Input
Amino acid sequence: MKISAGFATLAVVASISVPMPVAAEEWARFSWSGRDGSGDILYRRDVPFTDPVNGGVTLRDSIYAFHVVGWYQLTEGHWFTGNGGSVVTHTTQTPCEDGFGELCTNRFLTFKLGALNNGDPKPWQVNITLPSDGYFDAEGRLPFFPVTSDAGWGAFGGYISNPVNDEAYGTLNMFSRVFHERVAAPVPEPGLPLLAGLGALGVLLGTSRRRRA
Output
């Protein structure tokens, strides 16, 4: 039994385009907006954590995409857009500012950003200080919460910087509206093998029609 080239190509395309079953993924979006800047970071929250230290963990290569706007003295805006990166949480204890010798717990969230679309090679990162009533869950991950100006935690603080030349820009302050929400998994664009297979199928079908004509 002969199989035409068109049907053979169609079978290849079908085998490429049908995804393999995967375990359920937990995607999260950390976003903020305010006078000092704004940001939107999409990442996988269920990535196995590594480097558990200081009450926090690293979610390596968990960031899918990011867009951050930072300002220098509210007059000079800087845009950071790209893909990839890791999420880091950690906790420290330092003497409280009241001067009575007690220790206060400080919690930090760091987004180590991946490659920027403009080709900037510097390792930019968003450094965020959680409010005094903020916390990480038992595994050191940031829990979900609604907008902070209406419910949930209090004021955040944060800036975007790189350790190469100490550049830093404000992006998050105590008046920013902050969200950390569960979201649907992003829909990836068609891969090159799928596009190539569809192109080949179109050529073969067109050739077959001309021959019949």
About this structure: Residues 6-23 have pLDDT under 50 and may be disordered. The chain has two domains: 1-25+188-213, 26-184. The two ends are 25 Å apart (CA to CA). The longest strand covers residues 76-95.
